[in-house]
C-alpha cells in the first residue's frame, strides 16, 4: 500500500502488489498447519476432494463477492454494510466479522508462536541428529506444556503484529513477502519431493490422494467449506477490507482466481509432505495422530532431518513459515483496526494496540490448552475456539455476505462494479449461480445438518 493514514485511503501499488498482499493473508497456517489436520480428521483423500470443490464452487465466488463490496464502498466491513444499506441491521454482519477476526487472531497467534519456538529450537540445534517420531513428539509436547515459553512466544507474535499494523509498515512487509513467499513455496516443493521418495510412502500417498467416496457425510462437507473459508481468509470481511484498497482498473475476477489457486496449491503440497512422511515413519499408528493439533510440528522436523543441509534448511523453513503466519495475523488485525479508525476515528496506533492486547488476553487460555493446563488441554479449548470461530462463524458470515449481495444489494449492482477492470467476465454464470443458489443452500444445509444431527 502506498499510504496508510486514516483519512487518505491507500491503494495497492499494482495488480501484482494486491495479489501478493491477498495471498499473504490467505497463505499461512491455515494451509500448512490446519489443512492436514482437517484431512486427518475427515478420512483423507475424500476430504481433499471436497475441499477443492468447496474452493471452486463456494470460496472463489465468495472471494470475488467480498472484493467487489470492498472496492465499491472503499470501506471496512461495518462501514461497507452501512454505506450499502444505511439504517438497517446489515451492519451487524460487519460487527460479527470484526469480533470473529479478534477471536481467530487470538488462537491463530498461538500456533504462529509455536513457529517462533521452533525457529529458536532449530537455531540451537534441537533437531540435530537422528530424528525419530518419539523424539519429535517429545520435543513438541514438552514445548507446548511449558507455559512460560509458550506465553513468551505468543507475546512476541502479538507484539510484532501490533507493531506492523500500528506503524503502517506493511509496505515493507509486502516488499519482503514478494521475495520470501516464493522462497517458502520452493522449500515446500523440495520437502514434498523428499516425502514422496521416502521408503514406505505408498500408504500415505493413497490415504491422501485415493478418495473413498463412501465416506462423504455432512460433517465432512461442513469442515471442507470451513477450511475453504479459513484458508482463503473469507467470511469475516478481510477481503472486503483488502478490496477497499484495489483500484478500478484491476481485474477482480482473475486476482481472486490467482489467490485461490496459490493458496490451494500450498495446502495440497503441505499434505503431500505430511501424510507420506507420517505413514512411512516407524513406531506410530497414523490413525492415532493424523488429526493431532501439533501434526505439522511433529512431522516437519522428520522430513527436514532427511534433507541434505537439514540445519540450514530447517532454519530457513521456520523463518519463512513465520513470515507466512505474520502476513496472515496482520490481515486479521487489520479488519478490527480499520473498523475503529474509520467508524470511531481512533488513531491507528491506539486501535492496533487495544485490539492486539485484547487478542493476547483472549488467547491465553488457548496458549495453555496444549499441555500447560490439564483442564484446558482436556477440553481441547484451542480446537473448540477454532470450531466456533474458524468454522461456524466464518460459514455464517459467508452465508450472510452472499445473501446480502444476491438479494439485498443486488446482482446487477455487483456486476457493474466487477465490470470495472473485467470487461469480459468469463465465469459470470458460475458466479451468479453460486451466489444466488448454490452457496446459500449448501451453507445452510451443511450448518443445519452438522449442528442438529451430528
Ligand atoms: N487465511 C489465513 C491462513 O490460512 C488465516 C486468516 C487470515 C484468516 N485472515 C483471515 C482466516 C480471515 C479467516 C478469516 O493462514
What report would you give on this structure?
With 454 residues, this protein is mainly alpha-helical. It has one domain (15-452): Sodium/glucose cotransporter (Up-down Bundle). The chain has 19 helices and no strands. The protein has helices spanning 15-26, 29-41, 45-73, 77-84, 91-123, 133-144, 147-167, 170-196, 202-209, 218-231, 238-243, 252-280, 286-289, 295-304, 310-344, 348-367, 374-378, 381-419, 428-453. The longest helix has 39 residues, at 381-419. Residues 1-8 have low confidence and may be disordered. The structure holds tryptophan (TRP). Tryptophan is lined by residues 25-26, 28-31, 104, 230-231, 233, 236, 238, 328, 331-332, 394.
Draw up the topology in text.
Elements (H helix, E strand, L loop, with lengths): L14 H12 L2 H13 L3 H29 L3 H8 L6 H33 L9 H12 L2 H21 L2 H27 L5 H8 L8 H14 L6 H6 L8 H29 L5 H4 L5 H10 L5 H35 L3 H20 L6 H5 L2 H39 L8 H26 L1
Helix pairs in contact: 1-8, 1-12, 1-15, 2-10, 2-12, 3-4, 3-10, 3-12, 3-18, 3-19, 4-5, 5-7, 5-15, 5-16, 5-18, 6-14, 7-15, 7-16, 8-12, 8-15, 9-12, 10-18, 10-19, 12-14, 15-16, 18-19
The protein binds tryptophan.
Tryptophan binds next to helix 1, helix 2, helix 10 and helix 15.
